[in-house]
Amino acid sequence: MRIDIVSLFPEFVAACAGFGVVGRAQERGLLSLHGWNPRDYAEGNYRRVDDRPFGGGPGMVMLIDPLRAAIAAARAADPAPARVVYLSPQGRRLNQARVRELAGRERMLLLCGRYEGVDERLVRAEVDEELSIGDYVLSGGELAAAVVVDAVARLQAGALNDAESAAQDSFEDDGLLDCPHYTRPVSHPLGDVPEVLLSGNHAEISRWRRQQALGRTWERRPDLLDEQNLSPADRALLAD
Ligand code: ADE
């Protein structure tokens, strides 16, 4: 997958993506990141990329033309069509289903705004979808872009090692939170590993994990349970 990042700080997003699974996905050729800085496409001695908002108010608004030129340069760099995803708190909220959908694309372009935002005419003309990573405001879209890059990178086929992909993640498959995990030592001053995990009885272990996942979801995120139809077996586990 190819991801183009239009940002005043493209190196920042790339630096966030240089480690662990995402770094490895790049090394394995499963993911390539390409930064495009609108300042490189701005004109005049000062290479202005923003200006004061019409109507007054605090902050600055990013200019249309440098952003548009950066997007055009990114598009021209590769023949594959790229949908433009604008990271903003006004966007649709990201979830794992959406991540899966994005991860299946051959290419996408992430547009990061700074300051108070981006001229609305640019958004209307160039943006295919607006995406928020949560109901809070960041000082720019770069961290949000890094979140998207990380989440889609780990879903590229071959990005995770076997052990990692075998692990049941929160939200994967069933939309539940993850069960708790334990490793050595079995006994520790902070507590013992639940016995069922040492039993070797895989059916019992699966049942326990499912029950833990259901219980945690019920306690912490009941909204997720409302959204899914629990099987009679799950209801019994929850009641247990
Ligand atoms: N830019 C600023 N805040 C953001 C958020 N919550 N999600 C995505 N992009 C943003």
How would you describe this protein?
It is a single chain. This protein is an alpha/beta fold. The chain has two domains: 152 residues, SPOUT methyltransferase, trefoil knot domain (Alpha/beta knot); 72 residues, Trp Operon Repressor, Chain A. Helices cover 39% and strands 17% of the residues. The protein contains ten helices and ten strands. The strands form three sheets. It has a five-stranded parallel β-sheet. Helix 1 runs parallel beside helix 6. The radius of gyration is 22 Å and the shape is elongated. The mean pLDDT is 93. The site of adenine has 11 residues, from strand 5.
Structural class: alpha/beta
CATH topology of the largest domain: Alpha/beta knot
Mean pLDDT across residues: 93
The total of beta strands comes to 10
The largest sheet has its strands arranged as 2-1-6-5-8
Morphology call: elongated
Gross CATH architecture of the largest domain: 3-Layer(aba) Sandwich
Domains counted in the coordinates: how many?
2
Note the gap between the termini.
44 Å
Catalytic activity: guanosine(37) in tRNA + S-adenosyl-L-methionine = N(1)-methylguanosine(37) in tRNA + S-adenosyl-L-homocysteine + H(+)
Function: Specifically methylates guanosine-37 in various tRNAs.
Keywords: Cytoplasm, Methyltransferase, S-adenosyl-L-methionine, Transferase, tRNA processing
Subunit structure: Homodimer.
Give the topology, please.
Elements: E1 2-6, H1 10-16, H2 20-27, E2 32-36, E3 50-51, E4 61-62, H3 64-76, E5 83-93, H4 96-103, E6 107-112, E7 117-118, H5 120-126, E8 129-132, H6 142-153, H7 162-166, E9 187-188, E10 191-192, H8 202-220, H9 222-227, H10 232-239
Parallel strand pairs: 1-2, 1-6, 4-7, 5-6, 5-8
Antiparallel strand pairs: 3-4, 9-10
Bound molecules: adenine (ADE).
Binding site for S-adenosyl-L-methionine: 113, 133-138
EC number: 2.1.1.228
Enzyme class: transferase
